[in-house]
Amino acid sequence: MKTLVLTEKPSVAKEIARVLGCNQKQKHHYEGAKYVVTWALGHLVTLAEPDDYDTKYKTWNLEDLPILPERMKLKVMKETSHQFRGIEQLSRRGDLAELVIATDAGREGELVARWIMELIRWKKPFKRLWISSQTDQAIREGFSKLKPGTDYNRLYQAAVCRSEADWLIGLNVTRALTSKFGASLSAGRVQTPTLAMMINREAEIRDFRSVDYWLIEADLGSFRAAWRDPKTGDTRIFDRERADSLKAKLQGQSGRIVQIQQTEKQIPHPLAYDLTELQRDANRKFGFSAKQTSNVLQRLYEQYKIVTYPRTDSRYLTSDMAPTLAGRLKGAAIGPYAPLAAPLLRKPLAITKRIVDDAKVSDHHAIIPTGEAVSLATLSADERRLYDLIVRRFLALFYGPCRYDETKLTVDIAGEKLYASGKVVKQAGWKEVYGANDFSDPDREETDTDDDASQLLPQAKEKDPVTVKQARQLNRQTKPPGRYNEASLLSQMEKWGLGTPATRADIIEKLVASDTIERQGSQLIPTGKGKQLIELASEELRSPELTARWEQELERIAKGKGSMEQFLSGIRAKTVELVSEVKKSDAAYKPHNLTGSKCPDCGQFLQEVKGKRGRYLVCSSRECSYKREADGQLTNHRCPQCHKKMEIHTGKSGKYFQCRPCNVVEKVDNEASGGGRRASAKANRQLIEQYSDQAGIGNSLADKLRAAMQQSKEE
């Protein structure tokens, strides 16, 4: 008898099949002496659509809402049904005694497998492969320690709850808003409170009123000292007259050092990466989007097998991994990492609770190298950058803390207290891995400060005299909170428990795709549509607290502490309430992107929307399907200055190209060639046809063709 192994992706199936000795490749599976390995294509099965319950739901009507099926049905996804049929046929084979779930080891991976098993009616025993890396050794060890599939029933229940909750809340509220206000308005259990946080930040920025303040700094020759308020300790002075008075009081005066404090401080090494922290760092350092980081990381995990499981929320390792850490260090000790790993490998590794802590690991441990050999030259630029972050963070775990001396001086001048501070590195510790010379703690949020702690202070002792060479009055302004970028938005989503490490990147991409937020450089900015959507959505659905409670309950269900039935009952009740609010609403929606042009089919105003290839004009009526390219569409014509694609416009003198970044303008001289500098294939064919009718062949025809084509290029 053989074992059927179900993986999530063809690439994973191929690798597992190789390790298990399944060398016979078939259309839908690999087969060997003991195993048959097949694969899903992501989700092959999904929750049924409303019109699968009743055809009347094909039309979106407010009166039909909420849609609350008594029992949620499953259906095979049409686009991947061929692979589902292949798995279904395999499941009927009499020589298969059991099934091993080898999908991703997490909530969604469990759902992928269980839904397939439900529709193929798998009744035989099943087990679970639970591994955190795709190396050959990990696969072999995983198959030698397979766990009973029923051990993960609670995880499956949590996955079902998440999926049904998103269907019930997202589908019903989206249909209600869209039907009520006649526009495509998408809402969801996680995306709506995430959008609301961004709208609230915009309101804070809009309402912020900048205020002038002043700093008083004294140049004492060998160092600088800053005045602080004796009551509050604040360096800022919001009264201009007081600042003027202090500056005048200190100018040219003498004083003395009244106190010296010197303490040794240290910054422990940063924790290992979880997915969210890695996404934040990649965004801050390289400008990667959260989705881009996830995609690159998945390749490092699956294709190259050089990092461990990506979708983790833990920053710690487990005690059973401790014996493997030296081997992982040796595997990573290549190229620029070899001299950093060498001193660590000469002695036993210092493994502390800051590295290994079983109590702080749930499904998966932190992201670290696997120890597999890797040729850095085979990695793309993005893969190389992300791998560099992971390896350096792993190396830093075994270096000591960064130690430095912090010296603080208190100076008395004309009865005013001024303060100076400086820091000097005693032992770089883990900072050596990064070659950094700053004193920031990577596990803390960055904050703005007016303190100058980087100056080198002179050797001094109490009662030493000082003289003010120059008193400076520095004018500053209070700043509004910054707009969200992906790093800061991920931090807020994590803080409020919105989504999971595996889903947060997709939530951000959904908001961009639905035109409720847009990227402007590194910032994420709500659109006019997003602002209106939040005004129309229920106040409770906008609240991150509600979604955070739901996420916490899903975790409780996964751990066997919560009730699936109670959770879904509450979701259904909340769905009824949210739809009722939309129905009763007397608000109005006005599309933010309406143009002055009218639809030639129905007469409604056209809206300008963004597509993958540029901007489009679409009819604002949901019943009308009119769509055309907008003026300013991107072309393949390149800017002679920055070499980016140029837009094509129509002016009074005809069509012209324009480069947005450089504002370079070029006239479109050759319509036949599509405006390019070189004749198109169509234009060349026309030339051949033109000259082929003329008398003379051979060299004379070739000469004429060459001359004509050269003339076309010059034009």
Architecture overview:
- This protein is of the alpha+beta class and 715 residues long.
- The chain folds into six domains: 2-145, 3-Layer(aba) Sandwich (Rossmann fold); 162-206 and 484-584, Orthogonal Bundle (Topoisomerase I, domain 2), CATH 1.10.460.10; 212-269 and 402-477, Topoisomerase I, domain 3, CATH 2.70.20; 275-396, Topoisomerase I, domain 4, CATH 1.10.290.10; 594-673, no CATH class; 681-714, no CATH class.
- The longest helix is centred in the N-terminal third of the chain and has 29 residues, at 153-181.
- Helix content is 37%, strand content 20%.
- Helix 4 crosses helix 6 (153-181) and helix 21 packs antiparallel against helix 22 (699-714).
- Mean pLDDT is 89; it is low at 671-679 and 691-698.
- The protein is built from 22 helices and 26 strands.
- The strands form six sheets. It has a seven-stranded mixed β-sheet, with helices on both faces.
- Its EC number is 5.6.2.1.
- It is an enzyme of class 5 (isomerase).
- Residues 2-133 form the Toprim domain.
Q: What's the SSE blueprint?
A:
Blueprint: E1 2-7, H1 10-20, E2 24-25, E3 29-31, E4 35-39, E5 45-47, H2 50-53, E6 74-76, H3 81-91, E7 96-102, H4 107-119, E8 126-128, H5 136-144, E9 147-148, H6 153-181, H7 191-207, E10 212-219, E11 224-227, H8 240-250, E12 254-267, H9 275-286, H10 290-302, H11 325-332, H12 338-345, H13 381-396, E13 402-413, E14 416-427, H14 431-434, E15 465-467, E16 470-477, H15 486-496, H16 504-513, E17 517-520, E18 523-526, H17 528-536, H18 539-542, H19 544-558, H20 564-584, E19 594-598, E20 605-611, E21 614-619, E22 627-629, E23 633-638, E24 645-651, E25 654-658, E26 665-667, H21 681-692, H22 699-714
Parallel strand pairs: 1-4, 1-7, 7-8
Antiparallel strand pairs: 2-3, 3-4, 5-6, 8-9, 10-11, 10-16, 11-14, 12-13, 12-15, 13-14, 17-18, 19-20, 20-21, 21-22, 23-24, 24-25, 25-26
Helix pairs in contact: 4-6, 6-19, 6-20, 9-10, 9-13, 9-15, 10-13, 21-22
Domain Topo IA-type catalytic: 152-579
Catalytic activity: ATP-independent breakage of single-stranded DNA, followed by passage and rejoining
Biased composition (Acidic residues): 443-453
